[in-house]
Structures are given as C-alpha cells and as structure tokens.
Write a structure and sequence with these properties.
Blueprint (H helix, E strand, L loop, with lengths): L1 E2 L4 E6 L3 E3 L5 E7 H4 L11 E8 L11 E9 L2 E8 L5 E11 L16 E5 L3 E3 L8 E7 L14 E7 L8 E3 L24 E3 L5 E5 L16 E8 L5 E10 L11 E9 L3 E2 L3 E2 L5 E3 L6 E7 L9 E7 L16 E9 L2 E8 L5 E12 L5
C-alpha cells in the first residue's frame, strides 16, 4: 500500500470498434508512448492494468457489452481482447489505467501521483434475465464537484467494476404485481430457482458495464462529462437480480494530486480451481467454462487496512501460461467483480462470459482513505 504521491499512474482511451454480432471479437492495442510518454520501460510484472468498456460516442450506434481480458502486457504497452456478450451487434471502445506501486527511479516524474479524479459507488439496480426486455440498466451519478478537463469539455476517462453492495445472495423479498418494481412477470419461474412470478431475489447478478461519453445531469448537477458519470450495464445471468458498480473518473489535465491522506493498494490474483472433465489446474490460474463450472471466487487481503472500505476496480489478463496437461487453454473474457469490500480486503468474483473453456488471472486496484485521513 502506497500514498498517492509515490505511485506512478497513466490513463488513456482507445477508439471504438464494431462488434457485428454475438461472440464477435476485436483487439485493441495500447502503446504507452503514444498517450503517456515516459511511462514505458517498466517491468510488466509491476504494472497493474485495469480496462473498462466505453460507448462509441455516436448516439445513433448501439453500445454493446463486451467482456475483455488484457494480453501481452509488455514494457511498451498491452493488448485488450474483447468479445461481444450482447445478443445484438454494436460498437464499443475501452478506457484503461496502468499503475505501478513501486516505480523505478528512472520513470518520468510526470507520471508520479494521480491526476484529478472522482470515485464512488452506485446504488444497486435491478435487471431482468439476459435476452429479455429489462436486461439492461442505466446509472447516472453526479459529482459533488466538477472534474476539470484539459482542454475544457474533453471527456474524462471513466472505469466501472461491479459489486454486490447492498445485496444479500440468500435474501428474498416478495411483492404482489402492483408493488413489484419489475411489474407483472407473466413468464412465471424462468430462473430454474423455484421462484414464482411475483417473487424477487436480491442475488447479485453478473452485469457487464460500459461508461457513456456524457452525463445527462441530475440531482443538482448540470449536464456535461465534467459533472457526473453514466454507466450502462447488461445482465449476463439467466435469472433476475441486482448489481451496483464502483466507478473511477480520471481528469486529463497534467496536475497531479500530492496527498498523503489517500492510499493505493494493488495486486495480481492468480486463481486456482478444479475443472470438470479437465482435472486440477496448477495453483496459478483459474479455468472457467460456460458450463458447468463457470463461476469462482477468491479472497484478497490488504497488507495494511484502509480507514474505510475503498473503491475497488479489477480486470482479467493472461499473465501466466498453464502447465501441462492444461497448456492448450487460452485466456478468455471473464466478468470480474469486487464483492464484500471491507477496510481489510474483498472477494474477487469471476464468471466466464465467453463461449469456451479457458483461464484467467486478475489485476486489481483499491483506492481509499489511509488511517487517520481527514
């Protein structure tokens, strides 16, 4: 765990690309020197890379919900491999941050500390099952203070990561048709979980997020990208449920925050899981398949506690290669969420959103108050 002013940080955004249909794939290339001169040359093992989809910027174009993983993390940059999890075609690009907790002395001072940012947590919202009307939801969160941009009006870089905030996986509440927030549910029990047509579960579902390029305004904040963040998300589960999101918005101006009140913790979690029909995977990766084992979780503990629960962002990658007999498996797009976040740690929750068996590693970044901050 390090204070803001000791951390090296870079951020950027790719152009959007088209995903014509379900499971279509695209590759996005990030070269540090094109967007963050002087950041390159760092040992890739020390860099934590977080990516998050963003909209095309064209209101006439559907923003799809691509799952993604980061590949070929090199001293010069990395690749983002994305797969459309939406039933419809559309387009999307990716925002990204790269962070080094212990930067080498030779790294440019322009990348020490964080630029101006806004971060927080949305309230949970409800989703219908995937591929049904209501499987999308939209979140609009105003900033308490506008986020400056250089040049003025430029879009901040925004990232989102799902969480279970406010939800109890085992809890159920019951509504009649008049008070059910989803309204009448004529299909009856389509979840396979024994729920009737007017029963509701607070289970956290796997929603794939994308941030929009603008903010429509609300709760006292005017419209414009500097005044808030808008997140859209699509449910990937075959059952209804809720999801909330951590968000981080990064200003593009060069001024850096020199604050000792805020701390940053980061790491790479290597999953381990036995996979049906494949055998035991080495203690360095998680193999996931669409069925029957496509979900896994792993506990993460901070080396020092935060004063309050931090904002946590995570993204998957292919940092390791599997040993035999599983060395033929590839990294796959996996939805990763940060559950049960406390000042002491959290639980990474991973679900395969691709159509094939594979594995993942996961980078994560936690940002929050240090003990004694005001």
């Amino acid at each position: 765990m390090k204070p803001f002013h000791e951390v090296a940080f870079a951020a950027g955004s790719t152009d959007s690309d088209a995903f014509p249909g379900h499971w279509d794939e695209q590759v996005f290339h990030v070269v540090y020197n094109q967007v963050a001169p002087g950041f390159g040359g760092v040992d890739p093992a020390a860099v934590r890379v977080i990516v998050s989809a963003h909209s095309s910027g064209d209101p006439a174009t559907h923003t799809c919900a691509p799952g993604a993983f980061v590949e070929r993390i090199l001293p010069t940059g990395f690749e983002i491999h994305a797969m459309n999890t939406d039933d419809a075609g559309g387009s999307a690009g990716f925002n990204w941050i790269a962070l080094v907790e212990d930067p080498p002395r030779g790294l440019s001072g322009d990348h020490r500390g964080f630029p101006p940012l806004r971060m927080g947590l949305t309230q949970p919202q409800a989703f219908y099952p995937t591929a049904q009307l209501g499987d999308w939801s939209i979140y609009g969160v105003p900033f308490a203070k506008p986020l400056p941009a250089d040049p003025p009006g430029d879009f901040p870089i925004r990232l989102a990561c799902g969480t279970d905030h406010g939800n109890e996986a085992a809890a159920q509440s019951f509504f009649d048709d008049a008070s059910d927030p989803f309204g009448p549910y004529p299909q009856g029990d389509i979840t396979g979980a024994g729920l009737g047509p007017t029963e509701w579960t607070n289970k956290t579902i796997g929603a794939v997020p994308a941030t929009m390029d603008n903010f429509a305004g609300g709760l006292g904040a005017g419209p414009g990208p500097e005044n808030g963040v808008t997140i859209i998300a699509r449910n990937q589960n075959g059952e209804r449920g809720k999801c909330a999101f951590y968000y981080l918005a990064v200003g593009r101006e060069q001024q850096r925050i020199d604050s000792r009140d805020f701390q940053v913790a980061s790491g790479t979690t290597l999953f381990s899981q036995s996979v049906n029909g494949v055998g035991s995977i080495d203690d360095s990766a998680l193999a996931l398949g669409p069925t029957p084992i496509d979900i896994a979780a792993w506990h993460v503990y901070f080396d020092q506690p935060f004063q309050t629960p931090p904002v946590v962002l995570a993204a998957v990658n292919d940092r390791i290669r599997l040993p035999a007999p599983n060395d033929g498996l590839d990294a796959v797009p996996v939805l990763v969420q940060a559950h049960d976040v406390t000042p002491y740690g959290f639980t990474l929750f991973a679900r395969n959103v691709s159509d094939r068996l594979g594995y993942v590693c996961c980078d994560w970044v936690a940002i929050g108050c240090a003990p004694g901050c005001v």
